[in-house]
């Protein structure tokens, strides 16, 4: 028998540096190694990734492919355009594969998919190796050390991490890569077994590109936005391991910044440059290793006098990421929702506004009818989503998010609190859906966990502390620079009114060339900015009272509604 014939399956680790899985593949001393990326219909059809995130993915793939080719001119990243659950058994057979190696996934969907693929590999006699490498510690080990329970606080995470052991030091990138083997595709049309439901309808008449396993030219090329029918991306943030490593080095070079970083002191109004690292999209795509990030900072902190410490410090930020991943690993797929999630408080969202009292459509935990909005709540949601709430601070952040795919953590706090318990009283899952579409760094665990935090349904319970859509922004940015940039209709408005244009006298509005009118939805007249959609002072009181009641009833996502409409605690 010859040496191993290995498929290295890139997914959440679009890098060559510090990859325990890639090292494991190379340690096999393979005869041939195919670096592949497979198309996953879950991400193409079901997950709601916007064009900016797609561009970031293609940046990562292109950069990785070039790096692979630098190590072996015969190799590159081979993009296989079919679902892994159906294509893998065909590749195992046709390419005579002996080993399948990949980085262990942390997300619920990824883990379910991998279970299917691992079973298929076993059936085909292919050995599977999949070490962790996406987090500081293996999320499953953290769960074990946390008594089988989800890590719901940083203290729990730190205690569990201590028991798991020291965070491993990063590994160097390989210096050579083996040749890829032949890649015959003549597997006929026999039906794979088992056949998962992955045949969702194809997109926008661009079926051609989706039907050819090796791409339209048969060369396993990396996709382009154009080919997939996307418009041009709008974000200035670009992906790829080369950029990620450069960005990290830039941050570490500013020793004072990296060693004394305190998150609560970083401004959500800062942009170009932003006040935090903006490394989250790189971590999401795995173009940057989280352990490299951790150790580059920790080594600095260890020799720096007066360095900050977790959770506010830079390494502390990475602990939050591990905390949400381990919480998800313990709870499984219900982690990203209320339904069947015993750790998330049930809140009957969509309280009617005063004007709507008596017209409530009703929502409920265990029935799953989460997204039944009152017409008013739905309109508020739409205005929030499109950045036309009439509150310039909220609108600037939402427009920054839509255009660029990233906003500062405290900006995320402000808009998430406003949509849920601090204004609109709309279900956090609706906000999380919008973030899923727009964020470059969208991580199911971090997104859901942070929305739970902000809506006070899990992780955080101080529901009486709300962010004002006026005063919070003013604290950071009196001049309103963020607003002037992202809400250009207000760019010439006097500083006195920039956060509250509805209070501006006619003369000030005329001078700035803007009128405050309408709800901002549909076609908007040029030179207008919408009226505020709610009275924040009034809504704040209403929301706090409602959450207080929900807390006193104390139901969670796994509690049951019984036939008479009352709730039963399980
Ligand atoms: P830095 O401040 O430079 O922190 C360094 C790294 O630490 C980040 O890149 C990130 O990986 C990690 N980190 C920092 N804060 C958090 C946190 N609260 N939770 C988890 N990880 C953290 N982060 C995501 O990576 N993906 C998401 O989908 C996501 N959704 C969010 C939704 C809401 C409503 C909120 C309030 C926060 C969300 N976050 C999410 C967390 C956080 O806002 C971002 O990680 C951070 O703003 C990224 O910017 P940065 O890289 O400059 O962060």
Describe the structure.
With 570 residues, the chain is mainly alpha-helical. 41% of the residues lie in helices and 5% in strands. The strands form three sheets. A five-stranded parallel beta sheet has the order 3-2-1-4-5, with helices on both faces. Helix 6 crosses helix 13. The N and C termini lie far apart (58 Å). 47% of the residues are buried. Flavin-adenine dinucleotide (FAD) binds next to helix 11, helix 13, helix 16 and helix 18. The site of flavin-adenine dinucleotide (FAD) has 28 residues, from helix 11, helix 13, helix 16 and helix 18.
Descriptive labels:
single chain; 570 residues; mainly alpha; five-stranded parallel beta sheet; two-stranded parallel ribbon; 22 helices; 9 strands; globular; binds flavin-adenine dinucleotide
Number of extended strands = 9
The portion of residues forming beta strands comes to 5-15%
Structural class: mainly alpha
Give the % helix.
Answer: 40-55%
Q: Specify the overall morphology.
A: globular
Low-confidence stretches: 189-210, 356-372
**End-to-end distance:** 58 Å
Bound molecules: flavin-adenine dinucleotide
Mean pLDDT score: 91
Count of alpha/pi helices: 22
Measured on Cα atoms, how large is the radius of gyration? Answer: 25 Å
Task: Summarize the main sheet.
Answer: 5 strands, parallel
Strand order of the largest sheet: 3-2-1-4-5
Summarize the structure.
This protein is 41% helix and 5% strand. The protein is mainly alpha-helical.
């Amino acid at each position: 028998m010859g040496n191993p014939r290995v498929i290295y399956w890139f997914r959440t680790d679009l890098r060559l540096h510090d990859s325990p899985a890639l090292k494991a593949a190379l340690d096999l001393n393979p005869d041939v190694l195919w670096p592949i990326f497979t198309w996953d219909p879950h991400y193409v059809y079901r997950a709601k990734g916007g064009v900016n995130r797609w561009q970031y993915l293609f940046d990562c793939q292109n950069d990785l492919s070039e790096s692979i080719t630098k190590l072996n001119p015969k190799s590159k990243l081979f993009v296989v355009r079919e679902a892994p659950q159906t294509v893998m058994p065909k590749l195992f057979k046709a390419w005579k594969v002996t080993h399948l190696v990949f980085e262990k996934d942390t997300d619920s969907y990824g883990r379910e998919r991998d279970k299917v693929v691992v079973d298929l590999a076993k059936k085909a006699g292919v050995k599977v190796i999949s070490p962790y490498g996406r987090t500081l510690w293996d999320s499953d080990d953290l769960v074990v050390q946390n008594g089988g329970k989800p890590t719901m606080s940083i203290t729990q995470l730190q205690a569990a991490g201590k028991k798991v052991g020291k965070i491993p030091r990063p590994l160097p990138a390989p210096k050579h890569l083996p040749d890829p083997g032949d890649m015959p595709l003549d597997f006929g049309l026999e039906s794979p077994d088992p056949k998962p439901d992955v045949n969702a309808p194809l997109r926008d008449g661009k079926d051609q590109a989706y039907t050819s396993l090796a791409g339209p030219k048969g060369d396993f090329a990396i996709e382009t936005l154009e080919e997939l029918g996307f418009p041009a991306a709008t974000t200035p943030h670009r992906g790829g391991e080369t950029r990620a490593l450069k960005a990290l080095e830039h941050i570490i070079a500013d020793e004072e910044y990296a060693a004394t970083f305190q998150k609560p002191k970083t401004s959500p109004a800062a942009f170009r440059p932003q006040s935090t690292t903006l490394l989250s999209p790189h971590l999401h795509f795995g173009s940057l290793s989280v352990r490299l990030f951790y150790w580059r900072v920790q080594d600095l902190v260890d020799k720096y006098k007066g360095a900050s410490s977790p959770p506010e410090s830079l390494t502390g930020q990475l602990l939050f990421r591990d905390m949400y991943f381990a919480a998800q690993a313990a709870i499984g797929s219900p982690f990203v929702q209320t339904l069947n999630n015993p750790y998330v408080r049930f809140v009957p969202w969509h309280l009617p506004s005063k004007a709507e009292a008596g017209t409530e459509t009703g929502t409920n935990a265990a029935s799953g009818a989460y997204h039944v909005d009152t017409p008013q709540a739905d309109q508020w949601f739409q205005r929030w989503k499109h950045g036309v709430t009439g509150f310039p601070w909220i609108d600037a952040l939402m427009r920054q998010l839509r255009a660029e795919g990233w906003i500062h953590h405290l900006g995320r706090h402000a808009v998430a609190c406003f949509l849920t318990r601090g204004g609109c009283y709309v279900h956090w899952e609706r906000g999380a859906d919008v973030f899923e579409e727009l964020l470059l760094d969208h991580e199911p665990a971090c997104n859901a966990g942070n929305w739970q935090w902000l809506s006070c349904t899990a992780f955080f319970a101080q529901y009486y502390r709300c962010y004002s859509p006026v005063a919070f922004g003013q604290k950071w940015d009196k001049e309103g620079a963020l607003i002037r940039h992202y809400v250009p209709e207000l760019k010439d408005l006097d500083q006195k009114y920039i956060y509250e244009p509805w209070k501006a006298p006619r003369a000030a509005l005329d001078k700035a060339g803007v009128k405050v009118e309408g709800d901002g939805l549909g076609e908007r007249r040029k030179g207008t900015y919408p009226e505020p959609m709610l009275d924040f002072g009034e809504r704040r009181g209403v929301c706090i009272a409602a959450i207080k009641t929900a807390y006193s009833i104390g139901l969670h996502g796994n509690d049951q509604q019984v036939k008479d409409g009352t709730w039963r605690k399980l």
